[in-house]
Amino acid sequence: MNLEPMKTRLNDVVMRAMSRERLVQELVNRARQLGAVSIELRQARNLVQELNSDGRRQPNGKPWKRETKRYRRGLLSYNAKLTGRVEWLEETILKCRKKLMELMA
């Protein structure tokens, strides 16, 4: 009776289990990192929204025409970019979670 094929099959199963475990760990780490980054981005987005509502004004209460437009345009584009990044990160986190659930099942 030849035990060699059974040994290789057992080794294959063990290797697959180990690589799966490694993949799960990698996904968990990546999800953690993405979670931290998305929290930072959300804080930055909130800060930008506060700045947006601020809109620098002259002492008499009227906005500085040229400066305010440029300032607000810059803030709005930065805000849009941050919003896009946060949404992308949230999608990626959901994909990671879904993949984790598949691997855990």
Round the Cα radius of gyration to an integer and report it: 25 Å
Query: How many runs of DSSP E, i.e. beta strands?
Result: 0
Oligomer: single chain
| Integer count of domains | 1
Whole-number average pLDDT? 76
- DSSP strand content: under 5%
* Shape assignment: rod-shaped
Helical content (DSSP H or I, runs of 4+): over 70%
Q: Which regions contain 5 or more consecutive residues with pLDDT less than 50?
A: none
Could you spell the SSE succession in H and E letters?
HH
Compute the number of helices: 2
For the sheet with most strands, the description reads: none
- Report how far apart the termini are: 36 Å
- Structural class call reads mainly alpha
Description of the structure:
The protein is an all-alpha fold and 105 residues long. It has one domain (4-104). Helix content is 87%, strand content 0%. The protein contains two helices and no strands. The chain has helices at residues 4-54, 65-104. Helix 1 runs antiparallel to helix 2 (65-104). The protein is rod-shaped, with a radius of gyration of 25 Å. The two termini are 36 Å apart.
